Amino acid sequence: MQGSSEELLRVFIDQAPVSIAMFDMEMRYIAASRRWVSHYHLEQRNWRGASHYEVFTDLPDRWRAIHRRGLEGEVVSTSEDRFDRSDGTVQWLRWEVRPWFHDEKQGGIIIFSEDISGRKQSEERILQLNAELEGRVLQRTGQLEETISRLKQALASAEELRKELREQAIRDPLTGLFNRRFLEESMSHEVARARRTGSQLGVIMLDMDKFKHLNDTCGHQAGDSLLRAVAHVLVSNIRAGDVACRFGGDEFIVLMPGASLDSVTRKGHQLCDLLNALRVEFDHRQLPQLGCSMGVAVYPGNGATGAELLRSVDLSLYQDKAGAARRQ
After folding, report:
1. Is 87 in the active site?
2. From the candidates 172, 250, 314, 320, which is the catalytic residue?
């Protein structure tokens, strides 16, 4: 592939749908995802190449210490961290500081953060509801039947919240497709089932060509509109037992349990043809038509594990892109 690993990492971060920023050893910005820029209100700031400490002059000392640990090669993370913001609101984040390397030399750090305030609020809501109900049981022993009824309702609400949190954890918020986490879980399950039953498992990887150019020229909202349209095409044209996932950026994967290489290849070409012909209107204008590249892999011929299948299908996609580039 063309470009250095640092350039590829920068492109990935630019397109990432989560809050990620990349810094050099002097804590100067190299790249940041649009969610990072939006979350920290940097849209009007000239942040590229600027020091993180100049952008955030009031950064607490504890963060400077964490950055130093990352710059010394340590991976620092926490599953939940409370932030009391200046406007009086409370925000909970899951974050990780990780060094990045180029030619075996550390080039700086990458900071990832995820807002889990909604999950914490749901958890606190459940705890508060349970506490209130327990108090009523102690105070109103004479109204036992009514208390039991209320408790059942609370447990039902807690179960609904648990299901909602689970759904949020496995769905891509932009497209509504399953996310990479669910894909990896599903692949492990389907590979185990295929091994147990002696059947096959087909994998299709689809990539929208020149998507970054569309984002750069038409804006990220236009790109988001296109990705939602791609997701609609996928879910409308696969079998009930197939699984469509957004793998990341403009890459999508379809799992086809029990499918042979021929049927997986035919389905991949069908989906590519539909995406090649896709017309999307945004803001009263038609977006440029993008091409589609595809890769296919089948268990067990192209891999005995989910990770091996992903490597095989990614290589197949790369070869398809390379072939398309030579034909142009």
Report:
1. no
2. 250
